[in-house]
User: Which sequence fits this backbone?
């Protein structure tokens, strides 16, 4: 009976806490008894249809209450006791501002969430979408998905799109917007830009301009749009005591973001904390079948986050709380987690020369789908190029909650290579960008890691690609082979050849294992119908065969110059005798027919990538691989023997040249890059 009374109170007032949660005096028990008797008598006369409605309301209330269980145990909230924003938000806005609450995470380490019986993507794509549609049609947009994000050049483009989203959401009803700013030092410039562009958001919204502050106060009206601002890093905290509709207060709040040098960005925990704070607004009122306000969170960050293991939990909580998440962030680098950021000390009193800072901004998939291989002429094939998408876990949070991820980079334009000098300050060093319309076809699947792993098990080509990609990240990186061998004295020559053969012998078994791993999925390649997996597998297979063939034939070619090959005699008396062997790439494979067939197979895989997936990162890497022939050939050259060192005429003096006096100017101090 007490539980029924609690539910009646919750439905009647819209509040979770009830007077029955405290110690109940004797008169209270009497009151409960008589109320229970009245309810029992009323039930006899209540029509069956009304009973079904009450049952549905109770079920909805229970589902909302159970959302508390979804927050991690490590999350604890410390704040001044204030009324929860909900049905009484109007009173809260006119009340005296309380002290700014502080929300702190007790532990840096969070418990990994494993939910073998819970598939976030699948459940909310069907069951919850149907539930939302039946309970509140205006909330259908929360569960609509399909486009993961937008690739933009300027923050202003994201701001304009956010303004459109806010305007569309306000057409459904009153709206609460919560801006969450990353406190890392690398986001300083972007925070400043957004603060200046807040007018672009709010002055484009007609309903926001209809009611000024005086009208709302005099007419005792509830503003159609309220906004709150939070900052997050290792902890999360509000920058205003209460939500507001005043633009000046929002600008001041953003300018008050405090830099966090901890290097931690607990994105998922912060989002869940904010969702918990405002979920009562988004809860559907059983009487009106509408929420008090729709709630949307806008994250502004340039990192992937340090608590991605909580993504399933954050997605589930936000969807149940009916909170949609948007993000203004950075593009994930293709097939890698970290990128270099061009850091310039913001204080002009210090050295202003650019420095390279390492920031975690990816990757675009939950497990690697790209081999880590060195090119034969040197360089890492994991060059920092645009993936076309945002970091996987943060993009998935937006995607699953009905939001959008905006991948912003100031160098996004054209097809030419971006050089370090052209990289904007505080931006990541991405050398190539790709057409968003082309990349739309290659969107990753934003599902739980468990579901992702299940898709790997369903197709051996996918599984082989991921296994090979992970294998190349466990060993040492492949070295660029030595290709020039002067034979000036026999001992040095033989030693240099032997060392190079040892290097080749070291990597050949690893490359053979990687090639065999990929070959195990070759039979299922024909069954693959998704463009992303097709391009990934074909590129990996072509590069693996080429890399193994180059390393194995390299070893065989070195054996020839030790025992078989001889220098040609000089053409005439004026031409010196050749004394150097130079190994050059060749289109002809000279180590047997089997190797020649493998070379053709590698080329066919790489050419298929270029033909079927033009304008993509996979095609770019395939083209780079094909520029270097797979075979080898020996060429002869002449190396000038080193001349004997001449003794200095004045015993190490300055040869009579007068030294110029140094400029009497102290250089500015160079501070190390802070933790980003």
Assistant:
């Amino acid at each position: 009976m007490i539980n029924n009374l609690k539910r009646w109170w919750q439905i009647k007032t819209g509040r979770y806490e009830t007077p029955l949660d405290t110690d109940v005096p004797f008169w209270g028990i009497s009151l409960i008894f008589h109320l229970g008797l009245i309810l029992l008598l009323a039930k006899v006369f209540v029509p069956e249809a009304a009973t079904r409605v009450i049952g549905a309301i109770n079920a909805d209330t229970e589902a909302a209450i159970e959302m508390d269980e979804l927050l991690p145990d490590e999350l604890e909230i410390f704040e001044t006791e204030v009324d929860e924003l909900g049905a009484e938000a109007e009173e809260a806005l006119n009340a005296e501002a309380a002290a700014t609450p502080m929300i702190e995470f007790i532990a840096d380490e969070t418990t990994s969430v494993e939910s073998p019986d819970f598939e976030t993507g699948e459940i909310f794509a069907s069951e919850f979408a149907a539930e939302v549609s039946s309970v509140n049609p205006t909330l259908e947009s929360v569960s609509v998905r399909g486009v993961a994000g937008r690739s933009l050049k300027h923050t202003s483009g994201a701001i304009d799109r956010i303004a459109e989203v806010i305007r569309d959401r306000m057409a459904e009803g009153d709206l609460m917007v919560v801006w969450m700013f990353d406190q890392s030092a690398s986001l300083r410039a972007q925070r400043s830009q957004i603060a200046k562009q807040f007018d672009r958001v709010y002055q484009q919204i007609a309903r926001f301009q209809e009611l000024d502050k005086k009208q709302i106060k005099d007419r005792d009206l509830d503003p159609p749009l309220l906004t709150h601002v939070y900052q997050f890093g290792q902890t999360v905290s509000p920058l205003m005591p209460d939500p507001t509709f005043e633009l000046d207060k929002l600008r001041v709040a953003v300018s008050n973001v405090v830099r966090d040098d901890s290097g931690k960005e607990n994105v998922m925990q912060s989002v869940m904390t904010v969702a918990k704070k405002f979920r009562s607004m988004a809860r559907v009122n059983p009487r009106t079948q509408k929420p008090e306000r729709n709630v949307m969170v806008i994250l502004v960050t340039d990192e992937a986050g340090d608590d991605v293991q909580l993504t399933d939990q954050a997605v589930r909580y936000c969807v149940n709380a009916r909170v949609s998440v948007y993000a203004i962030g950075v593009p994930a680098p293709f097939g890698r987690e970290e990128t270099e950021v061009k850091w310039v000390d913001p204080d002009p009193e210090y050295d202003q020369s650019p420095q390279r800072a390492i920031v975690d901004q990816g990757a675009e998939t939950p497990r690697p789908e790209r081999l880590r291989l060195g090119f034969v002429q040197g360089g890492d094939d994991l060059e920092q190029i645009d993936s076309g998408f945002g970091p996987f876990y943060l993009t998935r949070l937006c995607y699953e909650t009905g939001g959008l991820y905006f991948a912003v980079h100031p160098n996004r334009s054209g097809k030419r290579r971006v050089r370090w000098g052209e990289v904007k300050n505080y931006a990541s060093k991405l050398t190539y960008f790709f057409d968003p319309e082309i990349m739309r076809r290659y969107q990753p699947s934003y599902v739980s890691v468990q579901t992702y792993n299940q898709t790997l098990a369903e197709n051996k080509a996918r599984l082989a690609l991921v296994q090979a990609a992970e294998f190349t990240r466990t060993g040492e990186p492949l070295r660029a082979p030595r290709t020039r061998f002067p034979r000036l004295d026999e001992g040095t020559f033989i030693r240099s050849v032997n060392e190079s053969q040892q290097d080749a012998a070291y990597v050949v078994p690893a490359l053979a294992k990687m090639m065999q791993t990929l070959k195990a999925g070759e039979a299922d390649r024909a069954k693959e119908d998704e463009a992303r997996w097709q391009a990934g597998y074909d590129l990996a297979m072509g590069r693996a065969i080429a890399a193994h063939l180059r390393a194995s034939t390299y070893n065989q070619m070195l054996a020839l110059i030790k025992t078989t090959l001889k220098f040609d005699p000089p053409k005439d008396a004026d031409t010196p005798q050749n004394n150097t062997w130079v190994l050059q790439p060749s289109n002809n494979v000279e180590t047997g027919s089997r190797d020649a067939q493998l070379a053709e197979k590698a080329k066919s895989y790489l050419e298929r990538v270029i033909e079927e997936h033009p304008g993509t990162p996979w095609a770019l890497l395939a083209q780079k691989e094909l520029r270097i022939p797979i075979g080898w050939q020996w060429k002869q050259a002449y190396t000038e023997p080193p001349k004997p060192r001449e003794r200095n005429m004045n015993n190490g003096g300055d040869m009579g040249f007068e030294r110029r006096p140094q400029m009497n100017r102290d250089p500015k101090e160079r501070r190390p890059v802070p933790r980003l």
